[in-house]
Amino acid sequence: MIWVVLILVAAALVVWWLWRKNARKSEETAARPGPVDPFADADTDVLRGDPRRLRASDLVEVYGKTLAVRGTLRLTEGDYAWAEHFLDTGTGVKRWLSVEADPDLEVVLWEEVTGSELEPGPRELSHDGVSYRFNEKGKAKYVSEATTGLSATGSVRYHDYAGPDGQKLSFESFGDGAKWEMAKGLTLDRGQITIYHQSES
Questions:
Q1: Per-residue pLDDT tens for 7-59?
Q2: Cα dihedral angle (63, 185, 183, 101), rounded to 10 degrees?
Q3: How many CB atoms neighbour CB 44 within 10 A?
Q4: Can you say whether the dihedral through the CA atoms of 73, 76, 77, 82 is positive or negative?
Q5: How far apart are CA 13 and CA 1, in angstroms?
Q6: How far apart are CA 69 and CA 85, in angstroms?
Q7: How many CA atoms lie within 13 A of 107 on its CB side?
Q8: What is the pLDDT of residue 6?
Q9: What's the pTM value of the predicted model, to 2 decimals?
Q10: Which of 15, 20, 80, 139 is 20 to 30 A from residue 151's alpha carbon, by CA?
């Protein structure tokens, strides 16, 4: 009978020892930081807001103007994803802000261009005295959130051109056979934009 008790005590000690060993390993793993992108600027995101977390109702301050995010297009093309946010001051000033990481974060402020007869296709285009070279084209699917003026889901064809000093020219056509919409854009430095997140969810 005593030997049964001794076996049970020994088994309990072995189980306790294994449990402590696994607990220590879990604590060491939790305390060890995971891989970190050395070029990520978490301090800037904390101070100025994170463009990757933009959503409807957030506020964006750029060039001295504060604009509200009224809606967002979430776009995907294959494995690649990016977002375009519809901004409005409520006083007639409307813009779009595109946010993508490929792999570095790129934020571009877009303004619609009307009355132009330019169409995509050539390797080089000129608009307002600026020359733009063809960069890329494709077709993406989108999901619309809140107010964008577009249907809940759909597709968009695009042609993008790049100019000097972060200037861009883009053509988009929402839906098969739709006419091209043209916009000029300017790439923003992180210091040029401040985001006020209205929701942490």
A1: 544 445 544 444 565 656 555 555 556 665 555 555 556 668 899 999 999 99
A2: -110
A3: 13
A4: positive
A5: 19
A6: 6
A7: 19
A8: 47
A9: 0.77
A10: 80
Cα distance between residue 122 and residue 158, in whole Å:
14
The per-residue pLDDT for range 66-110, each reduced to its tens digit, is 999 999 999 999 999 999 999 998 888 889 999 999 888 999 999
Token digits of residue 88 = 């409005």
Sign of the Cα pseudo-torsion (30, 33, 36, 42, in order): positive
Cβ neighbours for 154, distance < 8 A, ≥ 6 positions apart: 141, 142, 144, 174, 175
Amino acid (one-letter) located at 41: D
Q: Which residues contact 66 (CB under 8 A, 6 or more apart)?
A: 59, 60, 89
Name the β-bridge partners of 182.
113, 171
Percent helix, strand, coil in the chain, to 5, is 25, 45, 30
What does R_g of the chain's alpha carbons equal in angstroms? 26
